[in-house]
Structures are given as structure tokens and as C-alpha cells.
Amino acid sequence: MQAWRVHENGEPGEVMRLERTERPTPGDGQVLLRVRAANINFPDALLCRGQYQVRPPLPFTPGVEICGETPDGRRVIANPALPYGGFAEYAVADAAALLPAPEALDDAEAAALHIGYQTGWFGLHRRARLEAGETLLVHAAAGGVGSAAVQLGKAAGATVIGVVGGADKAAVARDLGCDVVVDRRGEDVVAAVKEATGGRGADVIYDPVGGQAYAQSAKVVAFEGRIVVVGFASGSIPSPALNHALVKNYSILGLHWGLYNTKNPKLVQHCHEQLTELAARGAIRPLVSERVPLEEAAAAVQRVADGLTTGRVAVVPTLENGAAA
């Protein structure tokens, strides 16, 4: 089979190599999956750089989110078990963690329903307890993680403010359903959010960016508001002033979705059921902006790493017999 492998850490476009290798052999409790679609996530770039919290042994195949097919023909979504990730024709995953792919979504959309939407659901509902009628601010609203939060916020009955970088991403955020869109490249984010909320601020802020975005969040969070920290795509990890949280009466909530897989896996299953129901009635639909062949995966991962994409970019392998995966 063909698989992208990383033999040394560095930028994805430089260290990912497309190679022919043997199909991986599943270990105890694992299953071999034919990859139907693999979505690119920012952690894939961090894995290549050696900056992710998980560091698989070299060489490894990145790709942490797939829609695959089991040997008995079931269509499932999964997080591949590294070092045999999803940017390949075949991957392995823990059998107990497989989730049925929603019938309402195609392969790329189904793969994209996993990490980003699970993170959004846990962040907004489990951690922040978002309520209908509240105002939700989403940083990087046109990205893979942000676009999921926008759709989930609208499905929950919230007013959604999306912060983006650039006119093209602003258009995407509007199409996703944002009630207000703020282009950080041409607008003062703090002033724009205060104007949009009548000076009150946002009840819930969803931040996958960190750095300057977090500093802005602390200035526009409402009384008894909640800032949900889900990542640091900017590369800058903020050091929040806890005296400010005390004086302004807001909460800072961390969200590491992966922990639920070990701490409370039943909640992951429950979340998937909720997401599947939302997809079935059309309340959410993952934004897949590009579908690229396996041969273009490294360049696509680099574009995601550089912040040049919107929504999700999906890698769709071609099997050895020429059939589309």
C-alpha cells in the first residue's frame, strides 16, 4: 500500500514522504481499516514538527481522523492508532472506539464530524453549558475547529459572533451562519464585539487560537461569562491574569477532548449520538473545502499548518486497484 511517513521532525511539506509499505498488522483489540477519507487537523502538523503531546516513534504516518471501512464492510469513523495514521490506504484503530459513520454525510464529512465536532460539543455543552439566547464568540470561525463551533452554537440557539482573518474567511463565516463577523485584519476586535453586544460582551468564548485572541477574549467576556480554551493555533500560549478573572467574575475552562476517551468513553458515544441526530436533520454539516488525492497530502497538511485553508481539507486515497477509497 501507499502511505505518507515521517522519518524526522520538521515542517510537513518537507518531512512527509510518500512510500510503498506493507499494510499494518492490527494488535490486540485493534482492527484494520480501509481509509475512505482522512481529514487534516492542526495536530497532524504538530505531530510532524514533534510538538504534539503524543510523540509516536519514527517513522510514523500522520492522520488522526478518518472515515474507514472495516473488513466486514461497516462504514465507521475513527482515530487511527499511531504510528499507523490515516494518510495511507490502510490504517489501524481500536475496535472498541469505532463509531458508526452517519448516513447523512459522505466520507469526508463523516470523518470531519469526529474531533472538531466532538471538541465543540464538549466545550460548548459539557464545559460552558451554553444556553439558547446567549452570545457565543468563536475565534478562527472559518477554520475546521471554529466552523464546527459556529454550527453547534447556532443549533443550540445562540447568537454567534465569528472572528476571522481576511475577507475570504469572513465570507465563509457568514455562509456558516454567523450573526456577526469580525475581520481581525481590518477591524478592532474588542471594539467590534462590544458594539455588537451593546457593551455587554460574549457569554461564551470559544478559543482554539490563544495568544492575542485570548487577550481579546478577556476584554470582551461578559459578566459570568466562560472562556473555553481548546488550543493554541497561534503558537503562543497565554498566561491569564487570574486577578482579572476574579474582578470581572468569569470562568476559564480547559477542554482536552481526548481525555474523555479514557476518563468517560460513554460520554463520547453519547456525544456522537447527539451529533448524528443533528446531522440527520440538517442542523450541522461539516464544511469540507477541499478533497485532495493521497499524492497531495503533504502539501495540504502544510497549507493547514500555515493557516491558508477554511473548514476541513480531506485526503481521499486511491487503492492499488485504482478504485476510489
UniProtKB/TrEMBL annotation:
GO terms for molecular function: oxidoreductase activity; zinc ion binding. It comes from the Bacteria. SMART domains: PKS_ER. Residues 13-315 form the Enoyl reductase (ER) domain. InterPro entries: ADH-like_C, ADH-like_N, ER, GroES-like_sf, NAD(P)-bd_dom_sf, Quin_OxRdtase/zeta-crystal_CS, Zn-ADH-like_protein. PANTHER family: QUINONE OXIDOREDUCTASE-LIKE PROTEIN 2, SHORT-CHAIN DEHYDROGENASE/REDUCTASE. This is Oxidoreductase. It comes from Streptomyces spiralis.
